[in-house]
Automatic annotation (TrEMBL), chain A:
GO terms for cellular component: plasma membrane. It is found in: Cell membrane. One of its GO terms (biological process) is transmembrane transport. It comes from the Bacteria. Belongs to the binding-protein-dependent transport system permease family. The lineage of its organism: Bacteria, Pseudomonadati, Pseudomonadota, Alphaproteobacteria, Rhodospirillales. InterPro entries: BP-dependent_transpt_permease (IPR050366), MetI-like (IPR000515), MetI-like_sf (IPR035906), OppC_N (IPR025966). This is ABC transporter permease. It is a multi-pass membrane protein.
UniProtKB/TrEMBL annotation, chain B:
Its main location: membrane. Pfam families: BPD_transp_1, BPD_transp_1_N. CDD domains: TM_PBP2 (cd06261). This is ABC transporter permease.
Amino acid sequence: MTTVSLAPAAAGAAVCTPTIRSRMRRWLRKHPTLIVGAALLSTVAALSVAAPWIASHDPQALDPLARFRPPSAEHLFGTDAMGRDLFSRTVWGGRASLSVGLLVAVLATSAGVALGLLAGFVRWAEGPVMRLMDGLMAIPDILLAIALMAVTRAGLTTVVVAITVPQVPRVVRLVRSLALSLRERQYVEAAHALGTPLPVILIRHVLPNMITPLIVQATFIAATAILIEALLSFLGVGLPPQIPSWGTMMADARNFIAIAFHAALFPGLFLAATVLSVNLIGDGLRDALDPRLARQL
Amino acid sequence: MTYVLRRVAATLPVMAVVAILVFLLIHLSSGDPAALIAGDTATAEDIARLRGVLGLDQPLWNQFLRWIGRLAGGDLGTSIFTGVPVASLLAQRLEPTLSIALLTMTLAVLVSVPLGVLAAHKAGSWVDRLVMIFAVLAFSTPVFLVGYLFIYGFAIRLGWLPVQGYVSLAKGFWPWLSHLILPCVNLSLVYIALLTRMTRATVLDVLHEDYIRTARAKGLGVVAVLGHALRNAAIPIVTTIGVGIAFLIGGVVVSETVFAIPGVGRLVIDSVQRHDYPVIQSVLLLSAGMYVLINLLIDLSYRLFDPRIRA
């Protein structure tokens, strides 16, 4: 049975490859925001991944003799108030930003899917879960993240958790509303009637139908997370000083805007470009994958 | 009337959940809250005394009831760091924050609603493209980057406006306004982006409705048609404005830091660094209360905009 059904599909895939590629190309041409976003993000990501090799200096090395140097061949982006090399700090900072964005998107989406499915398919759980989410939603996300940082010690893990918690309700609401319509579908009801266990129904029939909106949502959460990490670090309640972060760099530059504007400009531009690229990818994916969703999100 | 009562009653469970979350916040910390509040230099006796003063030696539910009881009586507690009641601490900081919030939101609405309607009216044209590109740029640019650019350009280089600080309205209108222009224009950009996108999308939707075609067919002018459309698109726009106001505190925290304005936002950050939990808890509760209240008002105002909901 398996071999019979597999064979034509495999053959079909081989025949289809060129058409798929040309369709991909046409599809990408129709969605320029996706291309611009992806190009920007891959540039930032490449620089961040390559940070240990391309950074010209130790991002934390102090050099009191070379404070506030303007951009030059020696220091591509100049140096800050403590003589630290801004180019090295900026590319290392990208690692923090992108890791936080990715981790928060994955964690918030996973937690949101679990809780949303629970609320959507388990009747007794719906009330408690949704009331909890209503409560979380009522507190502004930045404020909640700041408050969570108040009770923990600054570190990558605590920052990721503090940013994740306020984002979970957004996913839960999305998943639950999708679940409510999916559970009325005939194939789900049929699976129920056949006695298929709930976890199997969820994984085989429900989750695959949620993937598109979830990917779009996760992308927007990644953009928000990158922005909030920078805000927290900027406010002095985010990543500890030993991890270079664009937000920390912006805060360090605050008192020296008049004499060393470049110290704020470069991390700020990288941050803006990164958030913009992720938002563009989100917009592009939403429009490309599901035109109906464009009006909802 | 029953509708109003039902809506009001619906806010109670939300506030109850918020209260529990906010109460549990300091118990979330891995260590002993008393030790965390007392700081690194405190002795064991200090911590034990503080635990007694704060009632942390009582059972959890007992602490919660006492806390809720005090809140119900209007007592937000006392700041651990300054020893001043939280309510008066907040009162001192309220004027700058309210000024920023009011000015920012007014500016955002005045700019974004016409801009969104224009973009929807000219949908697909270069005007529309330009507005949308501006919106996505403004939405993605961190508040503090634009803030620094403003300070560098308008305050330091051109010297048109003060670099930072806040002057009370009591000391004159212009000194007050001049200190608020940069922070408010800065902060409003995000909301302009958000509201413009929202307005464009909803007005565009409405423009496809039959009654708009009828209005056009009977020869109604462009402005009158757009007026019709805007009124019918009002609900999502008003909702976005309302949520924007409720969440403004998040942006205000950043603005007040960039422009060194002594408002509620700065108070929150200072309190986090001092582990001054009563202050943090109060601000969380009050902003959640604001969010719930604004949402309630929006719900009720739906009936104003849409007679169909009255039934």
